[in-house]
Write a structure and sequence with these properties.
The complex is a heterodimer of chains A (223) and B (254).
Chain A: H1 2-8, H2 11-51, H3 55-70, H4 73-83, H5 93-119, H6 122-130, H7 135-164, H8 177-188, H9 192-218
Helix pairs in contact in A: 2-3, 2-5, 2-7, 2-8, 2-9, 3-5, 4-5, 5-7, 6-7, 7-9, 8-9
Chain B: E1 5-16, E2 19-30, E3 34-38, H1 45-51, E4 60-65, E5 68-69, H2 77-81, E6 84-87, H3 99-109, H4 115-128, H5 144-156, E7 162-166, H6 174-189, E8 193-197, H7 201-207, E9 210-215, E10 218-223, H8 225-230, H9 235-246
Parallel strand pairs in B: 3-8, 3-9, 6-7, 7-8
Antiparallel strand pairs in B: 1-2, 1-4, 4-5, 9-10
Classes of the chains: A mainly alpha (223), B alpha/beta (254).
Chain lengths: 223, 254
Amino acid sequence: MEQFLFTFFNAEIAARYWRDILHGMGVTVVLSLAVIAAGLLLGLLLAVARATGKRALVFLVVAFADVMRALPPLIIIIVLFFAFPYIDLAMSSFTATWLALTLVLAAYAEESIWAGIAALPRGQTEAARSTGLSWGQTMGAVILPQALRMAVPALTNRVISITKNTALGSVVALSEILNTAQAASSNAGNPTPLMLGALAYLVIFIPVVLFARWLETRWRWKR
Amino acid sequence: MNAAPILEIVGLHKAYEGNTVLRGIDLRVRAGQLICVIGPSGSGKSTMLRCCNRLEEPSAGQIVVDGVDIMHARTDLNAVRQKIGMVFQQFNLYPHLSVLGNVMLALKKVQGHSHAEAEKRARQALDQVGMLAKADSYPGQLSGGQQQRVGIARGIALEPKVMLFDEPTSALDPELVGSVLQVMRQLRQSGMTMLVVTHEMAFARAAADRVVFMDGGVIVEEGPPEQIFGAPRHERTKAFVSRYAAHAGHGGQA
């Protein structure tokens, strides 16, 4: 038992590295928020573009969503970070990770929101249009409020799983939680920093999970 | 009574990929009239109604509402649709909005009324259909008959020139049909012009100024209810009407 505590929860080593982990936590939080905001917004725009029914737009959106969902996020990050400099599009490890995860989240968010839009009876649009609402007004006031509520459970799950993928930034040397903790562990020759990292993830994501749960129960119809 | 037609349909054709649904409809609805359109399923009556506000795009023909040709390329369709209220078979209320919110939406977004003014008008319309007490309920909390009355309020709140009814009682339980027909009769008495596609023969007979019998995408016969139901001139009308007389429609305590 003493050996276990010395190895995994070494107070001396924790004291030496907790600032690094805290810094990594900051990077993870900022990156996650940036991915969630940009990914959901882009996904919403793509779903609305698909809802126009314009053939070229629909094709582009579906192709984008299918490719992004088929590729492992890790590969997208690596391509953006290591390959894009050859076409003069060098980006920082933060930007590469952010962009890759944003695109992936957007693809999934588009699918979820589109599913919500497609599930609505045609009568909703017809009723709105019959009262003189434009296509855009119908989308904004009648279709999206309902489609988004239907999409909430799928979206919250996706948001959680994709923001955890910020850990993939470690492969391009982004100093987020996992990378910081790994570096500290090998320096110290002791896995305690990894345990601190795990703790950091829990501190960030348990509230997110609880918030998602609350959102799912809150956004039901009043009956 | 003003004799000018509020709604005029001229030579209306509608075809879907080779399948012709409407083969030349001519119909005039004058101000203050209630016209019932009857006919077997698939006769094209709903399609004709839905062409009147271009929820369906006519293949050919002219539709004039209150002097405006709604088929004209320069016509602002969203503006002209305010003049044409529509009530749907499935009610189509917005489930995420309260009853009041359902009625207020177009008053605010389309007619640009302030929130207070929109609410005032919405409450008046709800009062007219006897649903004011439920203003803060949500559609899911209402019976079908109540939902349909809110659907009517949503239409009349915009003060349209004509109201289109697409089988407004067909999705209702028999015991709820009467309240909706009652509201429609009151609307008629208040001077609203109405074009009603219905299977409620007793209602058509008692409340309509004229009855239009459609079959196979054309108007077979058109006349006062006494003629259509009492002394139909066409064989097809006769056959259709007698089939209904055999098992008289429910809810028609007209």
